[in-house]
Design goal:
This protein has 142 residues and is an all-alpha fold. The chain is globular, with a radius of gyration of 16 Å.
Length: 142
């Protein structure tokens, strides 16, 4: 598998080839679970590779526009979304980092109820979020 190492997040991005879609027709459930996992890992690697383009640590905590959270939120939010889905489907049995997952579980809507006040957040360094981001791809088909 092509897992992105933490040290590679600061290297120039490489193109990631993805299948256009996952073939949902399968006769062997174990084979399908493995293909589903591989597809997930490839897709998550492609998403994670987008963050390699950030110029430095400060870019992670700057808001791209005032109606959005800083980029660190989207990095952790996507991983938290997948952790929640993997738990729901019982593909993993425990949370990876409950504290970080609670930070990133808030919404991404620009509505007034979505708290975008920077004073209400103490964003962790992106390196602290790395285990949650990579851990959601470590499940193995049962």
């Amino acid at each position: 598998m092509n897992r992105v190492e933490a040290t590679l997040l600061n290297t120039p991005p490489a193109l990631v080839a993805l299948p256009r879609r996952l073939d949902l027709h399968a006769s062997d459930p174990q084979d399908f679970r493995q293909r589903l996992r591989d597809y997930f890992v490839q897709t998550f690697d492609a998403y994670e590779s987008l963050f390699r383009t950030l110029a430095g640590d400060a870019a992670w905590v700057e808001k791209p526009i005032t109606l959005r959270h800083p980029l660190i939120f989207y990095y952790g939010h996507t991983a938290t979304f997948f952790v929640n889905k993997l738990l729901l489907t019982r593909l993993i049995t425990e949370r990876i980092d409950p504290q970080l997952e609670s930070i990133f579980a808030v919404g991404v809507d620009e509505m007034s109820w979505d708290d975008l006040d920077a004073a209400h957040y103490d964003w962790p360094p992106w390196r602290a979020c790395r285990p949650t981001a990579t851990g959601c791809a470590r499940w193995s088909p049962a």
